[in-house]
Write a structure and sequence with these properties.
By secondary structure, chain A is mainly α. Chain A has six helices and no strands. The relative contact order of chain A is 0.05. Classes of the chains: A mainly alpha, B mainly alpha.
C-alpha cells in the first residue's frame, strides 16, 4: 500500500522536473531541444550509473525487488519514448498551440493514458482501479492545472 | 492543423506515461536507480544515433553554454529514479498527478519569484484558484476512504 511518503516523493519529483526543464531549456536556447536532451541524457547516464554503484555499497538499505525473475527485454526501453517526445515537443511548442497548449494537452494525455493503463494492468503492472474518489481528484487536478496554464489568457 | 498539434501534444503525454510504466516495471525487478540508468543510457544511445544521422547538430557557440545548465542532466537522473520508484506504488495516474502538481506548483513559485510585481491581479487570482483546486484534488486522492478495490 502506498504511504504519504510515496505521494510526497511524487510531488518532489515534480519539483525536480520544473527545475530540470528550466536548466535544460537554457541549453536548448543556445542550440536545439534535441541537443539539450542529448546532453542531459549523457550526463544523466553517468550520474545514474554512479548512483547505482553507490547504493550497492549499502545492501542493508535496499528493499527486496517485487518481481524475482529477470526483467522483460522491453522494460529496458524506457529511454526510447523520451527521445521521441523531445522531437514532438519541439514541433508542438513552435506551433499554433504553443508552450501552454503543449503543456495542457500533454497533461491530458498523461492522465488519460495513466488511468487506462492502471485499470487494465498493462505492462504487467498491478491494476489500480479507478474509483469515484480518484476520478474526482484527477478532474480537480486537471481543472486546476488548466486554470494555472491559461491564467493569463483567461484574466 | 491545430487539431494535429493537439493530438501530437496528447501523444507526448502518452509517451511520458509509457516511459513511466517501462521504468516502473524494470524497477520492480531491480531498483529505481537501475531503471534511471537504463533509461538514460538507452536514451543517450538513441539520441547519439540521431546526432550521427544529422537529425540535429552540435551548436557552433558551444563554449557559450552556461555551466550550471549541465546540472539539468544530473537532476534528470534523480527525477527518472523518483518517477520509476513511485509508479509501482501509486499507479500510473496518481504518479502522473503528483508529478504534474509538483511541477506546476514549482512553476508558479518560480514565476511569482521573478514576476511578482508585474502580474495583473486577475492572473494572480486565477492561478491561486487553480493551485487550490490542485491541492483539493491531491488531498482527496491521499485521504482514507480507500477501499480494497483502490489497489
Amino acid at each position: 500500500m502506498p504511504t504519504a511518503f510515496h505521494y510526497f516523493i511524487g510531488i518532489f519529483g515534480g519539483m525536480l522536473l520544473a527545475v530540470m526543464v528550466q536548466l535544460n531549456g537554457q541549453i536548448a536556447a543556445y542550440s536545439s531541444p534535441l541537443f539539450s536532451s542529448w546532453v542531459a541524457h549523457v550526463i544523466g547516464a553517468i550520474v545514474a550509473l554512479l548512483l547505482v554503484y553507490l547504493i550497492r555499497r549499502w545492501p542493508d538499505k535496499q528493499t527486496e525487488p517485487v518481481f524475482a525473475g529477470p526483467p522483460p527485454w522491453w522494460s529496458y526501453l524506457g529511454g526510447v519514448p523520451g527521445a521521441i517526445l523531445v522531437a514532438l515537443a519541439g514541433i508542438t511548442v513552435n506551433s499554433s498551440i504553443g508552450l501552454t497548449g503543449t503543456l495542457a494537452f500533454s497533461i491530458v494525455g498523461q492522465l488519460v493514458f495513466g488511468s487506462v493503463s492502471d485499470q487494465f494492468g498493462w505492462f504487467g503492472l498491478p491494476k489500480f482501479r479507478l474509483t469515484p474518489r480518484k476520478l474526482l481528484s484527477v478532474l480537480l487536478v486537471l481543472a486546476g492545472s488548466l486554470l494555472i496554464i491559461f491564467a493569463e489568457d483567461i484574466a | 492543423m491545430t487539431l494535429l498539434m493537439v493530438l501530437l501534444a496528447m501523444c507526448i503525454g502518452i509517451l511520458v506515461g509509457i516511459t513511466r510504466v517501462l521504468n516502473g516495471r524494470l524497477t520492480m525487478h531491480k531498483n529505481a536507480f537501475y531503471a534511471s540508468s537504463a533509461n538514460h543510457w538507452v536514451g543517450a544511445l538513441v539520441l547519439t544515433l540521431l546526432l550521427i544521422l544529422g537529425i540535429f547538430r552540435f551548436p557552433e557557440n558551444i563554449s557559450a553554454l552556461p555551466p550550471v545548465a549541465f546540472l539539468g542532466g544530473a537532476i534528470g537522473a534523480i527525477y527518472v529514479a523518483v518517477n520509476a520508484y513511485v509508479l509501482p506504488k501509486l499507479g500510473n495516474m496518481l504518479a502522473a498527478m503528483m508529478i504534474i502538481s509538483g511541477q506546476l506548483f514549482t512553476g508558479i513559485l518560480i514565476d511569482f519569484w521573478f514576476n511578482a510585481t508585474s502580474l495583473p491581479i486577475g492572473t494572480y487570482l486565477i492561478t491561486c484558484a487553480g493551485a487550490l483546486m490542485i491541492v483539493a484534488g491531491m488531498y482527496l486522492s491521499m485521504t482514507p476512504g480507500h477501499s480494497k478495490e483502490d489497489k
